[in-house]
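Researcher: If convenient, please comment on what follows.
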Amino acid sequence: MKITEEEIKRYASGHSSSEEKQRVQTWMKENDQMLECAPGEEEQLKSVWNRLSADMRQDVKLTDIPNKKVSYKLLSAIGTIAASLIMLIGLGWLGYQFVTSVPANKNAVVKRVHTEAGQRLTVTLSDGSQIVLNGKSELEYPEKFDGQQRLVKLKGEGFFDIAHDESKPFIVHTDSSFTQVLGTRFNLKAYADDEQVVLTVERGKVRFGRYDQRDQVVLTKGMQGIMEFHKAVRSGQVLPEEATDWTKDSFVIKNESLASVAKRLERRYAVQIHIESQSLRLLTVTGTYTDTNLEDILSSLAFSTGIDYTIKGKIVTIRK
């Protein structure tokens, strides 16, 4: 079966007819069953695959198969699609291949640290820069920075306080975003299960966006850049302390959906939160909490919105 790039574009943007949608999904499943590929390419494919559409993630479930092997032909096909959908997917294929290796020096010793939900960790790099990791995050970095740049890789959320060095730009890679600075303080949130990658500048100047240089913005103190699936990177003025509340044991909610708040609470307090209806998930809430605990936040939200909740161990259920 053959499909066109236009069919893929319509599928990724949610404008396929039911018949066309079935054709694309059938094509993906057929290609999924080809021969195996070289080591190291599977994770690259998974990331692009995941970004094609939520429907495909549910129907194909490639990322749920730990040792699944895929073919060079499929890798090439997905790469072609990704390149033709830069504005839809947010990745250039060559750019994503670059993100997978942190050290430019092959002999560099690479370190990896991670945090569980409810944890926070401060990492000091060889140049004196400090990074505070939020819960459910991972940082990959070289033991010593060699070459012409300082390159690290982030999954999750981190607050970066970067030592100034004009001769070596500091670069942060996530699965879909590129950040470059000389010396500054900023917060970068790039969780795999979030719909946005968000960078907030507390001090200095930051270049932020996709690996495709045509979709990057320069941010200065008090600015925030937001990158979303199949949307151009946008920026605006914000209060930086609202994005860095987690580093100060505060919890700021500003016109945010209850579903989004629930994700942040799960990471902060190491719980699982179940919201019983879609209407509640979309409910917009606001509030600011300092030096507080999970039950205080839920109690306040219940008072202001009329929701009800129960806490049983590490399981929280929210209902109307």
